[in-house]
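Archive entry. Fields below.
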Amino acid sequence: MTDPPPTIEILLVDDRTEDLTALSAVLAGDGYELISARSGADALLRALERDFAVIVLDVMMPDIDGFEVASLLRKRRRSAHTPIIFLTGAETDAGAIYRAYSVGAVDYLMKPVDADVLRAKVAIFADLFRMDLRIRQQAEALLSSERRLREMEIQQLKLANERRYRNLADAIPQIVWTTDARGEATYFNQRWAAYTGLPVGEAALSWLDAVHPDERAACGARWGDALAAGKAFELECRLRAGDGAYRWHLCRAVPDRDGKGAIVAWLGTHTDLDEVLRARLRAELLADAGVALASSLDARAGLRRLADMLVVELADACSIDAIDPLDEDGEAPGSIAVVRRDPGAPDPRTDGALVAPIVAGDREVGAIACAARDRAWDAADRAMLADLGRRAGAAVENARQYARAERAVRVRDEFLSVASHELRTPLSALMLQLGGLEHMIADGGADDRIAKKTAAALRHTHRLAKLVESLLDVSRLAAGRLTLTVEDCDLGELVQEVTERLGDEARRAGCPLIVRAQPGLHGACDRLRVEQVLTNLLGNALKYGAGHPIEIDVGEDLARDAATVTVRDHGIGIAPDDLPRIFDRFERAAPARHYGGLGLGLYIAREIVQAHGGWIRADSVPGDGATFTVGLPSLHAESAP
Amino acid sequence: MILVVEDDTDVREAYQDVLAEAGYDVETAANGAAALDRLRGGDAPDLVLLDLMMPVMDGWQLRAMMEQDARLRDIPVIVVTATREERELPCVARLLKPVPFEDLLDAVARVLRS
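PREDICTED_STRUCTURE:
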């Protein structure tokens, strides 16, 4: 730095003009700027305005003397260290000199002043001042250059940071933008330009313009609120891409505040959620559709719900056409057609943009077609619809299988019903004619052998009639047509009747029937049906426990408040694995070759007992027979009179 | 006299044989319409043994026609049903097919005695 040499200012203070003139004369010509003051007050005033290199101060002055002026000068910051040279009279004593030093004098001169001495002393202070000034200037210069350097560095850092942030903003997959404190766009990253297809300059318009019209108002309101409140903004909305398609984004913005907390800018991001949301939507749709299709065996209902879901989640219109599984046997197979179409949506059948076949097994049994006003589908959507097509196909196939099975069961039950009816007609004639024959033999006293054979034929006819009745019972039970004719019955008597009726058969099987009946158990039941249950159980006991006694106990299950009948045989018993299924239709534990029967007796027995609100259970120790217990809650012991 | 109304020839003949052998006068009709002709055309029988499921006119229809005819209304009817679940109709007894010999004669005897 080449600043001009500083002006050295010197204050001369003396109340006498001639002395001031003398002083000025001595010091003039040395390049000093000499300021004169004619009184202490004047000197103090001058010292307020300037920085003097030295003050030459006369001690003896009216009003305020030199000492007082010096002490006042010392109290001021500006003049606290300004060198003071006192001028004293010849009469000045040592005390005065001492006092002069004590108030801050750096030197003193006696009047009359020796010009050379004054000049020399002033020169010393002037040099000191000059040096001091230079040092201060240098320090200042140093400081300011350092400050400039720092500012430059900061500026560079700022630029580097900004560049780095921009690079970062351009590197990340999100759309990044900034606005000023009022929300006016100041920056958008490359991603935004790439997404919108607009040149970078034009892209930097308000991002709200790109928001889907459906969400724009709400989005703008929310953004306005965030700006006003200085609070973070977050919203999911669709943003228009360059190709006109909309994609879901998570839009977020946070305020950028300075050290004092004032908002200086807003930093925003748009994160593309479209894939995530669509994937989530697809997963949900698949799961829901799976449930809807699987929850019903009515294919039409399932497909209708599927169409409803598709129109809500994927399209504006949907048609589903499939072969009706129930009409399969018809000459012209019927079809299921489900169409769901929002107002104004294109016809999916003619303008379907997303189509998938409904595939059951390896057959195409229909198609799903979707159409939309302004929606673009991607490969994932197509894959999902194809998946739905397979699921719908499975549902249609299930419904078909179910319908077929149901039809088969219905046909079989109808057949059983018709067959047993048809069988009963000739049985009626046979039974009556044999009955008549038996009667005639008894009256006519015919050959014993004829009588025996007739009786046997009649017995077989009864058995045949019972089998036919079982078949009819099964079809009746399957159709849910079992009705009870309830009357008041005595359980002990009922058991007695059945055991008596089966007496002959028991004797032939070599089974003594041991009946232990608690008397007085009675209540409402269908006599004939309960007899049928007991007949079936006893029939089984005779069949599987031939040659061993059969115990029949009539009693009560007090815990379950029901009358019970227990039939216990000592035959082959039932294997534990077989126990759970012996009450099922057409089931039998014993091999059919060795033991006859349709496998219907226990099934019918259980159905009848359950129709009475009761239960039946079987217990067995294989090899040591089986025990069947029937509980009938409608029968009780007579209450004590 | 007992009027047997039954469409199946074998069964009809069986009823006729058994009842005749038991000493009853028996006449037969193969369906409700024929039975109604017989009932209106001649002396009232003491008992009608009525099958329900028949062609031309079934048992229920015949029974309804008899109800409407003051002369026929009070003739006792024994119904022979295929199943116990069949629709009810007014009668003095219901027998279940196939009817055992004794059950038939017992029922007939009980009705005619009263």
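CURATOR_NOTE: The interface with chain A takes residues 8, 10-11, 13-15, 17-18, 21, 80, 82-85, 97-102, 104 of chain B (CB under 8 Å).
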